Amino acid sequence: MKKLFKIIFGLVCILVLGFVGLVGYATYSDFQPDPTTLVFEKQNAKAIKGQKNFNLMIWNIGYGGLSRDMDFFYDGGKQVRPERQIVEKNITAIEAFIARQNDIDFFLLQEVDQKSKRSRFIDEYSQIAKLFPRFHSSFGKNYDVFFVPVPPSDPLGSVLSGLQTLARFEPTSVVRHSFPGNYAWPQGLFMLDRCFLVSRYLLDTKKQLLVINTHNSAYDDGTLRSNQMAYLKNFLITEYEKGNYVIAGGDWNQCPPGFNPEFKRNLMDNENRMDIGKEYLPKWKWAYDQKIPTNRRLVAPYDQKTTLTTVIDFFLVSPNIEVKQVYGIHLDFEHSDHHPVKLEVKFN
After folding, report:
1. pLDDT value of position 22
2. C-alpha dist (Å) from residue 277 to 65, 216, 258
3. Architecture of 36-347 per CATH?
């Protein structure tokens, strides 16, 4: 009995020391970005001349690991990551779809991995950038953790991921802006450091076009998202008051103000629903397709008849921009848990 007690005590000590070591190294190596980080700069970049109509597309590609047959443990499912051949199949299909969008001037992508165990260490960012060699590509890192220890039975492992903006035009600058707030220690050590990526383009009118790629928080009680939206609001107002044109798009992880779905093929997800307030920048325009869901629940593989869906991927444009058309593209969540959304705008 005494020997058994020593063995159990030894195992407990090993587990405790292992946990302390994990948290200690995670604290030491924690990604702590500055409030703003200059990603790219070219002050003499050519101005966009003569063009007043622009086409944009947003898409959270789910790092190629959240196709229709996938559930996910964070959402109440059981799976952690798919096999490599499935990730490769998803990324190949995602790339093929993006490559066909020859009319798009700006791609705003989220959950693009560079080196993550969950996507089998495929450099998705570089592969997508090669699709449009004449486009400018930039990356805003929002997830850099050496080891995510959950679930304990099969840890998610290392993650390096972020936002990717592809543009037909060369920006004068690209700046990563950190959203305020995060989860408390030690949980925050293993979670995303949310941000939005601001690309600036000089216009022939001497004004600027700002294209903002955003990915707001999920899995919180709404506090983080509310603080992020307040921070973003101040930034948007400041830029618009300078006379600039502003377009923000991405995965907001909340519904647009006054959203009233008209889904014909899917069920609406009203569980723990969070809507942006109607008083948020009331003169600005929210651009979304109320007929096509953009995101699905991951508690189980996708089933058109039972899976709950919603719209959390959309655009926000400043009052000096006219929304010509916006539409979601229903891909049956074949290769991502999100659908792409396309927008056409015209400068007033």
Report:
1. 47
2. 32, 15, 8
3. 4-Layer Sandwich (3.60)
